[in-house]
Amino acid sequence: MSATSSAPSAEATALYGSRKKGRITVRDIADAKRRGEKWAMLTSYDAMTAHLFDEAGIPVLLVGDSASMVVHGHESTLPITIDELIPMTSAVVRGTRRAMVVADLSFGSYQTGVEEALRNAARFLKESGAHAVKLEGGRRVIRQATALVEAGIPVMGHLGLTPQSVNTMGGYRVQGRGDAGAELLVDAKALEAAGAFAVVLECVPAELAERVTASLSIPTIGIGAGAGCDAQVLVWQDMAGLNETPAKFVKKYADLASVLATATREFARDVASGAFPAPEHAYR
């Protein structure tokens, strides 16, 4: 795949380091926390976007179970399977040369116990080339997180609004208010003790996220958690303006929905009028 994008900015590539070669690793992530460097993470589900994001200097890409919604059109993350996520992860790995690629363990692939978690996480590393996996929950999945780390599989945690538990949470709601904040902090510390290299904090009060970040030696990655986290993640379609009704925490950095709609209408008009293909688009 050819490199068509411009060189990443110094700000975007601070985590890479001027002498860093090869893939970003969990050690690089830990070093960034110690240096106080902030960094960005995006979702990606195919080789083309992965290549663009990698060239732009995004150090960590997440093949999220959000693909259930933004790729497959489901109303939640619950339906997607490991067998659907592995080919996407393979494509993202092939499309990158520097970014660490983290794969989501989908709903039902790790909750039943350590053996299943190990089997499915190992599939991601063996079959797709993923460099780490992410699972949702705190103390309730500590046995699984510990076992994965002990087996040599880097683990990213996920606390706060955990979309795989949306039915028990009563919808997509802010988590960690009041006394629940203390419980979330305990969960975060438990994940750190289990060996997780980072923790996503989704839809939690900014003050709580800042307190958790200060309490951990591993980085926090915020999504709807304020500016106090060590890193920030967005679903790339939200970031680029493809989602017409993004969440409050989303900042649209482009309006690709309008760009694609305009291009599509112009293409259809040109075909209908006979303007496309023109002579220069034909072979002789």
Can you tag this structure with a few keywords?
284 residues; 8-stranded parallel β-barrel; alpha/beta; 39% helix
Report what the structure shows.
- The protein is of the alpha/beta class and 284 residues long.
- It has eleven helices and eight strands.
- The chain has helices at residues 26-35, 47-56, 67-70, 82-94, 114-128, 142-150, 166-169, 180-194, 206-215, 236-239, 256-273, and strands spanning 39-43, 60-63, 100-104, 132-134, 155-160, 198-202, 220-223, 231-234.
- Helix 4 (82-94) runs parallel beside helix 5 and helix 8 (180-194) runs parallel beside helix 9 (206-215).
- Residues 1-5 have low confidence and may be disordered.
- The active site is at residue 202.
- Keywords: Cytoplasm, Magnesium, Metal-binding, Pantothenate biosynthesis, Transferase.
- Belongs to the PanB family.
Compute the number of strand runs. 8
Could you tell me how far the N terminus lies from the C terminus, measured between alpha carbons in angstroms? Answer: 27 Å
Rg from Cα? 20 Å
**Morphology call:** globular
Helix and strand composition category: alpha/beta
Note poorly predicted spans.
1-5
Q: Give the biggest beta sheet.
A: 8 strands, parallel, barrel
What's the tally of helices?
11
Helix content: 25-40%
Mean pLDDT: 93
> What is the beta-strand fraction?
5-15%
Write down the secondary-structure element order: HEHEHHEHEHEHHEHEEHH
Describe the SSE topology.
Blueprint: H1 26-35, E1 39-43, H2 47-56, E2 60-63, H3 67-70, H4 82-94, E3 100-104, H5 114-128, E4 132-134, H6 142-150, E5 155-160, H7 166-169, H8 180-194, E6 198-202, H9 206-215, E7 220-223, E8 231-234, H10 236-239, H11 256-273
Parallel strand pairs: 1-2, 1-8, 2-3, 3-4, 4-5, 5-6, 6-7, 7-8
